[in-house]
Amino acid sequence: MEVILNRNSQHKISELELIKRVIEGEKELYEILLRRNNQKLYRVIRTYIKDPMEIEDIMQNSYLKAYQKLHQFKHGSTYSTWLIRIGINESLARLKEKGKIFQISNNSQFNESNTILEMPDNNQANPETKIIHKESKQLLEDTIDSLEVKYKAVYILKEVEEMSIKEISECLGISVSNTKVRLHRAKHMLKEKLYELSGNTPIFEFGFSRCDRVTENVMKLLS
């Protein structure tokens, strides 16, 4: 039976059913899991790696590893939490190859410079609106980028991706109490005006052509 992967049908299949059907052989349905998680995975990896092409490479590796180990997925957590953990491990491995050390848990360290984000695709808008939107996003992103990565990671997952404290602690491999402390410190270090902007401004976007490129590359490799 032919499967039509349009944007409306993506939201009609539950995560549990998707995973079950992919494991049973409907490989084409894996595309839905990719499109549901591209934005979130991009933002998480962007916390650790700054090069746009390298981020996409890590995303693809993460999806391929997740697919290969999909039968090992335990439904005690969400697929996105499990995927993010894979993405973080891939990012840390890449940093290790470069001789950089990073703090993700209580037992490791990190030393990484701040990064400037190259803005991905923008929605169509009139020139004035686009300028205002871009400037406000850039100001917010630069401020978040000034945080230490251990605080930035927690902030992005909680305030941008709206994950729960428990999910974040699972992703980062730290305790719930430590997660709360890092989030509190992250908020404290951000200026109040910029912190308020984060509630209404979409940041670290990964959409349109970039989303399609990663999705298509992964699905080709699985063919």
Structural notes for this entry:
The chain is mainly α and 223 residues long. The protein has a single domain (7-222), classed as RNA polymerase sigma factor, region 2, helix turn helix motif (Rna Polymerase Sigma Factor, Chain: A), CATH 1.10.1740. It has eleven helices and no strands. Helix 3 packs across helix 5 (79-97) and helix 4 (52-68) crosses helix 5. The model is unreliable at 103-120 (pLDDT under 50).
Short note summarizing the structure:
The protein is built from eleven helices and no strands. The chain is mainly α and 223 residues long. It has a single domain, classed as Rna Polymerase Sigma Factor, Chain: A (Orthogonal Bundle), CATH 1.10.1740.10.
> What is the H-and-E element order?
HHHHHHHHHHH
Low-confidence stretches: 103-120
| Assembly of the depicted chains | single chain
Radius of gyration: 18 Å
Gross geometry: globular
- Percent of residues in helices comes to 55-70%
Query: Helical stretch count?
Result: 11
CATH class: Mainly Alpha
End-to-end CA span: 18 Å
Structure summary, number of beta strands:
0
* Number of domain units: 1
Task: Sketch the major β-sheet.
Answer: none
CATH topology: Rna Polymerase Sigma Factor, Chain: A
Strand content: under 5%
- The fourth-level CATH homologous superfamily is RNA polymerase sigma factor, region 2, helix turn helix motif
What would you say the CATH architecture is? Orthogonal Bundle
Category by helix and strand content: mainly alpha
